[in-house]
Design goal:
single chain; alpha+beta; seven-stranded mixed barrel; extended
Length: 320
């Protein structure tokens, strides 16, 4: 596990829970150095004072705030440490709210909270079980990296997780980004739901960063003095799809194929567009009405009358 980045306590009413804060995520990005193309010399940035032209070390540099043009006031680390901030060393819980009431857009970095010592074990477990049983999350204030933040506490397995949150006035409104008004038919919504069902998964832990893997292969090849393998040619993009239902049908078929599902796929069948279904119904010829069966008695009477007529014709005439 990583080293703690902050130590303090959770303030839960009159209950205090000593904790350590640890990063819950790690960065796997590949970093590069800037170099001179001709001789591969590294490009370095030096901190130069614009007044006397001297290069400065970090211990000679402090923070400054520009209160007016070309007028700066110095802010030292001591100034920041001595501020009367109650959340300087505490995660102060201010409210408990339903988890679904939190907009995910407001969530930021994630941290694990570790109980600090045996004295913290019981109150830590108490808060964890209370959060888990209530299906609520805790909203808290805390100070980290030079600023007061809003946070959210929730339970992940047996650990309490702290998510930093953006303040309400930091969230931009998406109202101006909505697309123009268009009509969507019920059959198209049903088609989208069928596609969602075909693409449904219970576990996404198998996904990996293919870009980083390809970049590592490029770096390894270059380090050995080889040229990286050429990228496979991607198929040309087709024209714009106008028929939305056709695109949904093709997407469902593709999703089934990628999951190895054939005729016995457990996904819902794609619905037929309602307009098309009505047209098909009109074109389908009506079934011919079956001919009425002649009753048996009527048929027998007709046969008897026919025999009598034939016999009368065959009878010889008498001589006059």
């Amino acid at each position: 596990m990583p080293r703690p980045i902050w130590s303090g306590a959770i303030s839960f009413g009159l209950v205090t829970i000593p904790i350590k804060v640890l990063n819950a995520t790690e960065n796997h990005d590949i970093s590069f150095r800037q170099v001179h193309l001709e001789d591969m010399g590294r490009i370095r940035y030096r901190k130069i004072c614009e007044v006397d032209g001297k290069q400065l070390s970090d211990n000679e540099i402090i923070k400054g705030y520009e209160v007016a043009k070309d007028q700066l006031v110095a802010i030292t680390d001591e100034d920041l440490a001595d501020m009367p901030l109650p959340t300087a060393k505490a995660i102060d819980i201010v409210a408990f709210v339903p988890a679904e009431s939190i907009d995910p857009v407001r969530l930021g970095d994630s941290f694990y909270l570790q109980a600090d010592g045996q004295v913290a074990a019981k109150p830590y477990k108490l808060l964890r079980q209370a959060l888990d049983r209530s299906a609520k999350v805790a909203v808290a204030k805390f100070a980290l990296r030079g600023r007061e933040r809003l946070g959210l506490l929730r339970v992940k397995e047996d650990v309490i997780v702290l998510h930093s949150m953006h303040w309400p006035d930091e969230i931009r409104s998406p109202a101006s980004l909505a697309p123009p008004a268009v009509e969507i038919g019920d059959s198209e919504v049903d088609g989208a739901l069928a596609l969602m069902d075909a693409m449904g998964q219970d576990d996404i832990s198998h996904y990996t960063d293919h870009y980083r893997e390809a970049l590592e292969e490029v770096i390894a090849a270059k380090a050995e003095g080889k040229q990286p393998a050429p990228a496979a040619e991607e198929p040309e993009a087709g024209g714009q799809v106008v028929d939305l239902m056709a695109a949904l049908n093709a997407s469902v078929a593709q999703a089934r194929e990628s999951r190895g599902e054939g005729e016995h796929a457990t996904v819902h069948e794609m619905p037929e567009p309602k307009k098309a279904a009505k047209k098909a119904a009109k074109k389908t010829p009506a079934k011919k009405t079956a001919a009425k069966k002649t009753p048996a008695k009527e048929t027998a009477a007709k046969k008897t009358a026919a025999k009598k007529t034939t016999a009368a014709r065959r009878k010889p005439r008498r001589a006059s």
